[in-house]
Amino acid sequence: MNISRKTFVKFAALPFVALAAKGARSKPNGPRWGMAIDHRNCAKDEGCTLCTDACHLTHNVPTIPDARREVKWVWKERFSKVFPSEYLPARLENASGPVMCNHCENPPCTRVCPTGATFKRPDGIVMMDWHRCIGCRYCMAACPYGSRSFNWSDPRPHIRSVNAAYPCRTKGVVEKCTFCVERLDVGKAPLCSEACPEKALIFGDLNDPRSEIRTLLSARYGLRRRTELGTRPSVFYIL
Amino acid sequence: MLRLEKTVSGGRAYRIWLLCLAAVIATGFACYLRQLDYGLAVTGMSRDITWGLYIAQFTFTVGIAASAVMVVLPYYLHDYKAFGPMLILGEFVAISAVLMCMLFIFADMGQPARVLNVMLHPAPQSMMFWDMVSLSIYLLLNTIIASVTLAAERRELPPPTWIRSLILLSIPWAVSIHTVTAFLYCGLPGRSFWLTAILAPRFLASAFASGPALLILLWLLLSKLTHVKAGGEAVRKLAVIATYAMLLNVFFVLLELFTALYSGIPGDAEHFRYLYLGLDGHFSLVPWMWVSAGLAILSLVLLLRPATRENHRTLALACVFVFVSLWIDKGVAMVVGGFVPSPMGAVTGYAPTAPEIAIAAGIWALGALVATVLIKLAILVRGGLAGRAAPLRAVDKNLLEVSH
Q1: What superfamily in CATH does domain B4-403 come from?
Q2: pLDDT tens string A127-162
Q3: CB contacts, 8 Å: B105 with chain A
Q4: Which of A37, B57, B72, B101 sits in a 20 to 30 Å window from B162, CA-based?
């Protein structure tokens, strides 16, 4: 095989061209999806679980009686646990609000995954590949928010009615909220956000200064969970 | 060619020992089949305590595997010939321990059939990937070293000179396997119990105490059961190594306690409170922790006094104390303590279930079986455990000349 020096140099340069192209593509001109939870609206009905119900029913999330083995994607947690403090205003003292995967900008869970079964998409969504997951649960040890669930046994017996349009998981894999990527693909907002009658969960593009979520965040102070850890969550709480 | 079946034939006691091990392995395997079928719900693990006995035992056995370096290093780097007879024992214990490490990880997988995804989709940013790489290579190194040197001895030839570079490589490699294992834990932002730079040195100190303690116990046992001569000098030196390592380990634990408790940062202090005093009505680990602390102190009393350290009876007792104390500390508390309380402040109880304990015991029995067979093999080859003929560095010239 005869290769001239010129040809060799041309081909040798190819990987660098590819790298440069990749670098250009990863510039933040696409969306970064995020959620702002307006607690004043959520608190209007303390016993409401519509966001959880909509999500869990559609995504075939099992209802497991043993709290130690629960699988949860979005659920309500006592406010004093999510943002521990003292002398809370009376309206927050016993209140609870929705928690879910924070879709961190710098997620510890994807860093530790030994197979790349959990990964961050360019639009900021932290995803799970349930077919690649080996069930080592390292991501659960790494997540500082307890947002991940493991299928300690087969989830199917605990799913009341299976939604055939969405995959069921198997025993031995980790799962969590995906910001409803399947709905984003067809231009719809996540289910929890749509199910809320009070419009307390505002979903949108954090990179777009004119989006509803950014308008809200520039008008009112948005808190994020455990910012001291440097994970940079994409879920904001407005009190 | 030496046949493997010779290693399983022996006296009545030897056959009973092998049968007992086989029974424990079979029970563990049956329980594992149940776990494979039903899922990890057969264990005591939960949402908040996602790792339990398996990963804790893994952490402890990595230490045992790494501790072979405590006989290899003095022999090869300092020409300390008294460790000659101990070498093969150290290497065989290391091989068995690495096998156990791998099985403990495997037992912990939710989808064991997919475990090779770690190689198929390598993720170099994950410490678990590096742990798998370093453990596999360590197993390979020790297997090659032990089999090549033993094969050379069988032919009454000096081992090939290239083996020396592998032996030298195995020294830093042993340190690396335990460092990477510590890195599994100490790089997680929300887990303050593990988020400590002293975790790797602490792991190494406890490994270099528990490993030599095990080697001493094995050696004393072998000199009782077989016609192997007790290498008094080697045992004496190993006891000194175990003493220093145990002192360092206790010192490191006290450093951890000071930083966590004096700073008063709840996230740091509450894990220790849970372990030593109990939290929110969960006290199951408290007696274990105090037994571990008590045994650590007792072992040091026995090891620090020359009279009790040199007496083989009290030394054996001290070694049992060291081993049990560190097994509780690293093989139970280190992992569970990191999960309680959870980052959300939840305090959940954890107790391994019967199948979980049976599976872990099965893996220990398998490790013991492999070690037994390998040691028997060495005794058959050598007609005793008497050491390598000469340090390898002297091998090249004079021994070759003699054989020609």
Answers
A1: Formate dehydrogenase/DMSO reductase domain (1.20.1630.10)
A2: 999 999 999 999 999 999 999 999 999 999 999 999
A3: 136
A4: B101
